[in-house]
Known about the structure:
- Two copies of one chain form a homodimer.
- By secondary structure, chain A is mainly α.
- Helices cover about 65% and strands about 10% of the residues of chain A.
- Chain A has a two-stranded antiparallel sheet with strand order 1-2.
- In chain A, helix 1 crosses helix 4, helix 2 packs across helix 3 and helix 6 runs antiparallel to helix 7.
- At the A-B interface, helix 1, helix 4, strand 3, helix 5 and helix 6 of A face helix 1, helix 4, strand 3, helix 5 and helix 6 of B.
- Strand 3 of chain A pairs antiparallel with strand 3 of chain B, so a sheet runs across the interface.
- Chain A binds a DNA duplex through helix 3.
Amino acid sequence: MAKDRKIDMVILGLLSHEDMTGYDIKKNIDHAIRFFWKGSFGSIYPALAAMEKDELVSHKAQEEKSGGRERIFYQITEKGRKTLCDWLEDRAAVNDLKYETLLKLFFGSSVDSTISIKNIEEFRRGIEDDLKLLRLYRDNLETILNERDHVYFYITVLFGIETYEGYLRWCDKSIEILRKM
Amino acid sequence: MAKDRKIDMVILGLLSHEDMTGYDIKKNIDHAIRFFWKGSFGSIYPALAAMEKDELVSHKAQEEKSGGRERIFYQITEKGRKTLCDWLEDRAAVNDLKYETLLKLFFGSSVDSTISIKNIEEFRRGIEDDLKLLRLYRDNLETILNERDHVYFYITVLFGIETYEGYLRWCDKSIEILRKM
DNA sequence: ATCAGCATGTAAGGCGTTACATGATTCA
DNA sequence: TGAATCATGTAACGCCTTACATGCTGAT
């Protein structure tokens, strides 16, 4: 029955908080959601069109001449809210992880160990940058945690911090092991 | 130029250790690699055929009548080895993570917090099972670590243990936060 | 004048999953 | 006899990315 396109759920979830445009949706994904899900314009705009046909969202073309190009604000419908809740209540969840870094490491015996060390160091740099950002989010969120809505964002940030700190510990440990070879 | 199909690299990596069949490749992926990459028969067999045409692998149909159906053993070619090494030496690596669990949690404010708690508990159960397995792998590997080849497997197992332990800490912490709401 | 950012959308094509088709052997 | 496992492969289909097309506004 229901198609399994998760980008639909991302969109419905964001629209459940407030009306926004496809462009806003992309910005939101890139801001907080990117740590555990991704989405491009090429998937967002077609999804919005398909969901409008299915009456999960609707739009009223904004005609405020305040400048810039036309902005199409989408809003979630009752049917859309129902679809979102059904998905949230369904216990099944697929976590699909693809670490090319780990894949390269697994086959590292085909090349010199210095190559693998460099690959881990590259991975480490990206993690360090994101971790700084996540800690900033956490500190800000802790000042406004009384607002119920922020708790869910807060928890996902804690997830990022916990896993990223684990990544860093592993990077140091594994580089040390490879250096001793 | 080179297509970016990572399943090719998984296959080349496995064949760089020993000749094997498509079926064996699948078993290997499901055993150790599944923690950071996946692959189905529907991608493995076509990939083998395409790579044979590109002369990255070759096969000699086994005609031992020892029973069972025909088994086609593939072996990596010199060109295949070169392709594998080029990929390993290329510093770029894409880690694409899709946590549906986190996505549901992020939008948890649309439903009762007991739903989110149940979703986290479900996630926790899967992690616990895999963690037991990973610790078993680690203990076994530590007895044969002198063999160079095992170090790379060992390090990826340590990665799994480090991140999975982080997941468990986070599960407990976040359930506690949600219970207090 | 030009570039970056805002904003919407389409087209081509790659990648991968699921389900199906086929068939042998082993074990209860 | 029937189920499970071994074993290879195809077909349909879905999802997503990249690149492209278009055009406005504001800052340098």
